[in-house]
Structure formats: structure tokens, C-alpha cells
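User: Please predict the structure of the protein below. I'd like the answer in C-alpha cell form so I can feed it into my own downstream comparison script.

Assistant: Understood. Taking the following sequence of 284 residues as input:
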Amino acid sequence: MDSGEQAKEDSGWKIEVVNRDFPRGSFRFAIFDFDGTISLIREGWQEIMIPYFTDELLACPGAKNKSRQELTELVRDFVYVNTGKQTIYQCIQQAEEVKKLGGKALDPLDYKNEYLHRLEIRIAGRIAELEKNPAANVKHIVPGSFGMLEALKKRGVIMYLASGTDEKYVFREAALLQVTGYFAGVYGAQDDYKTFSKKMVIDRIIRENKLHGKELVGFGDGYVEIENVKSAGGFACGVATDEVKRRGVDQWKRERLKRSGADIIIPDFTKTGKLVRYLFTEGD
């Protein structure tokens, strides 16, 4: 198959094969991103961060000749490039952009805290619903996630969860979605952001279990986790879920995942059987 070839079609659900050359069938460990890959609790976070950062830039002296659209595009670019890393990295870049426009930048942690405050307001209803009714978890999870986690568990695959969201929130939301028990380890961002990265988690998994890269499969919807898995020699599955519709492919995500080096791209996990057969079958 050529790059971008699409396979395994079924009722609109398909595995888009970007790289057919990676050896499959011997995966022993899996690493999952959380937000957008399993959890939809924070769906729409970009709609909080990007306007907030844009407003801060528009207030800078050097923004007098800049349009909102121009600054929105600037913010969108650095927000998405850093998606998957700890939130603080987006805030560090925001502080740099404020300085470039002659503004007085806040400490990146202040930008982060204000963003999280605004996001908590947005998702408060979802959290309350999950706390009141655990069965509502199916409304706030990428479709098919439970089936996929169960299938990998039955195959003896050891799974880890790594997120750029603060660890306390990852713990809270993974528990509310009832997925914590599937993972041998759950990792999130630390206050000292230099002590955590997805790359550190992946390197640790490989080192402690004496893995070859081909024994690792990673699932994610952003640059960071895809690039980290590929740099470790693993197989990267891009999850391009349309988070609003909860079905189909988000084309912007799809293009980003292809550029990041994903080996395959899927819309979600609803066709678990097809996906598992593909991953654990050698060759096409």
C-alpha cells in the first residue's frame, strides 16, 4: 500500500494505513494518551485556551496593528504544536508571545491557573453528572474505548496512561470514567514540569521491561505522543476522533497525526475486533 492507503473499511469505519512497513503482531506493552484519546470530559478545552490567550495578546502595546484573526492563528499554532505536552508549555509560549508584543507577561503558572479555572467552569456539569451517575461514563469517553482496553487486557498487554494534564485531574477523571483499573501506571503532569514527560514514561517502560521498540504500541491524538512512540521505535496509532460528534474523523486531527508520523489512523475504537486483528497480525 502507498502512504495514506485506506484499509479494513466497514460502514464508514476504516483503518487508514500510513506506514505498512512496521512489523506488527508482537506488542506486549501499550501507552495511551488520555484527553481526546480515551476521555472526552475536556472536549472543547481549545475553545477556552485560545480565546483567553488571544485576548491577552490583543491587550499588548504591539498588537495595535494586529487583527484578532491574525493573533488567533498565532495562538492556535503554538497551542496545537504543544498539545500532548504538559499544559505549562503552552503557557510558557504564551508568556513569550506577550513579551514579543511589548506586554508585561505573567508567570506561566498564572496563565495556567487562570486557564484551568475557566476550563473547570466549562466541564463542571460533566464532572457532576459522572459523580452522580457513573453509568454516564459512556457519554464522555471515546466510543469503543472499553472494548479496546478489554481486548488488550485479555491478550496480556500491559497498559499505561500518560497525559499532559495535571496528574490530580487525570486521576480524578480516569476514576470517574472507570478506566483506572486497566492500567499498570497512570501518569500526569507535575508541578515541577521538568520531572515529567511522555518521553520519560515511554523510556522508563522500555528500560524496565527490556523491550524492543516493536513490542510497544501507542495510541494518541496529538503530536507529542505519536512522535515519542516513534522515536522509541514503537508503533503509533493515531486516534482522530471528532470529539463533538463522537463519531467520524476530525480531518484537522487526521492531517496533524499523519505529519506526526502515525503508522495508522482510526476514527475511534468501535471496531475493536478489526483493529485488534490488524495490530496482532503480521503483515497485511
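That's the full C-alpha cell string. Confidence is low (pLDDT under 50) at residues 1-10.
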